[in-house]
Structure formats: C-alpha cells, structure tokens
C-alpha cells in the first residue's frame, strides 16, 4: 500500500539520521523503535487517517494531533518535546520563518479582551496548582540558579522595582497586573501607591481579594480595565508579560501611551518575551502556529531591536536592557515539572484537551527559551529628551 511504503521510507530516514528514544505503534499492531536504548516516548497512531500528522511532523501538526487525540502519546512532557523537535528537524527543511508584519492580527479592544480571557481565565485553581504561591506568571530571576521558584519570583519583583527605583509615596501603575503579586509587594515593601490593571476577570477578582486580605485597601487599587483607558500621571510604570498581546503594529502607540502616563521625571519597565528572529518571525517548525491556535490567540513577538525602535517612536528613551532568556528557560522548566507532578489534580480543574495544550506548551516553552528561539528582555526607560542623570552611574544600585 502507498502509505506503508511512505511510512517505511520515513522511518528509515529518521533512523539513519538520528537515534531517538521513540517507539511508534500502529493501529494494526506494527511497531517501530528508533533507537537502541529503551524508548522514553511512545506514539500510538490509532487510525491510518492520523498518519499525515506524523509524516509531516511540524510542531503545529504534532501538537494539534496530540491535543485533538489524533495521536496518543506516552512519556514525560520534556522528553516528548525533545523527540518532536528531533522529528521536525530531521524531516523538514528549516525554511525562513514568516514575519508577523506581513500578516498581522487585528487588535481591537474586544478581540484583545477575548484573547486575554481565553488564556488567563481558565480558572484560578488551575494556575495555583503549578505556579508559585504568589501566582507570578512571568519569568523569575535566579541569583544562582539553585533557588526555589517562590524565592526567584520575589527576587524578580524586587529586581524590577529596584531597577526603576521605586520610592516611598511613589504612584506606580502596573499594566497587566496578573494576580497582584507585584502591586502588593510594591505597596508593602516599597511604600508605593499602586494601581493595577488587567483584562482578566479571574485575575481581577483574586487580586482584589488578596489586596484586601493584606490590609492594603486605599494603597492598592486593582481595576478591570484596558490600559488604553487609564488616565493620569504616575511616577513609575511596570508592564510585565503584557506587551506580547499588544500587536507589532501597535507597539509605538503602546509605548506612546506609557509616555503619556509617565511623569516628566518618571521611570518605566517593560518586561516581555521577544523573538530572536530579526524579521520578527515565528519560531522554527511551526511552534508559533500551535501557540497562536491553542494558547495565545492574537499574540505577537517582536525582535528586541523593533521594541527599542518602537520605544523611541513612542517618545521613550531606553536606559537599560537586560536579557533574561536563561532565567525564563529555568522558570518554564520548573512550571513544566510542577505541571507533571500535579497532573491528576490539574485534570480535576480542566478538561483533557486543555490539559494537553498546557502540558506541551509549558515544556515547549522551556525548550524554546533554552534553544534561543525566543528570549526575554527587561528594558528600563524614561521620557526621551530629558537631561542626563535619570539613573545612577553604575548598575550596582539594582542589586542592593
């Protein structure tokens, strides 16, 4: 049969080029092992109609087949991701990655709100099972790499607040405030007056409750609000893991809004994921396509060079840039391990499909950050054109 010859040729090609800890099982009982060692990953093809997903193993195809139950997969998520990438690498040509600018998403308030709610309003209980106790859903900061996640997440918040020199009495706007961890710490430890905004109803509800429990009513306000609708002026502004939702074509306007909200002597921090493709393209082998479809609808990652350009166009001067790619690889790795360890509990909060999406997403992100496909940059900025001296001469002040 045609499919039998095609599959055998594909199997022979993979075996000749890579020794993978993979076992392939077909609906008819036929079995193929791809390495001499015991397989760590087993893929079962339940029907001949599922073969196209395997014979053209883009990460989008493999991810879709797993999520939709077209391929049955056994093995630890990190090992599954490593095998999937090896299959893609040894089957597909690594073509030029298409840039988002050629096919941008349309970002309206309604679409942006829907995208945020799809991703973040899964349920608070779901996120609590694999995040740290403060539920910080962004790159942690490791002084040595040996810290536990909770310690590293507090260190990340302090690293941000120290970088922008938050002082007692400062007004601070936190755009995309999540479940309120940064806002609460800025008020408790730095004596700031904080406004946090989010488009997630679940985040807003729990962050508001946490503010109340911490006795910070009157010092921290959490709003269910689009950042474009915020008014006033603030001494300090933070945006952590939010600008990925803005859209590449809207970056200059986004930074322009931050500029408009920032006091003349103020400082802001943009902490966000960037692509390492200079054409602002997707990750190799279709990984970005999977994320667009199942994880982050409307998400767009710019290259850091475009971020700096858009920041200047928005009237802001970049003052300090730090690449934390290694830190996010470590963070995602811990999240993926937490997810695996508490799989049974997580399945009590979401359906099987959502569980599969997040399982491969977290392990896939750890892989992508580790391989330098995507990165994480913290950029401190202030209003362009003001006199020099906004920051100390040395970066030592950030590590007090």
Automatic annotation (TrEMBL):
One matching Pfam family, short form? DUF7884
Against InterPro entries, the record matches this protein to: CFA/CMAS, CMAS, DUF7884, SAM-dependent_MTases_sf
Which UniProt keywords are given for this protein, alphabetically ordered? Lipid metabolism, Methyltransferase, S-adenosyl-L-methionine, Transferase
What's the domain of life for this entry? Bacteria
**Residue ranges of the DUF7884 domain?**
14-93
Of which family is this protein a member?
Belongs to the CFA/CMAS family.
Q: Which PANTHER family match?
A: CYCLOPROPANE-FATTY-ACYL-PHOSPHOLIPID SYNTHASE
Q: What is this protein called?
A: Cyclopropane-fatty-acyl-phospholipid synthase
Species of origin: Noviherbaspirillum suwonense
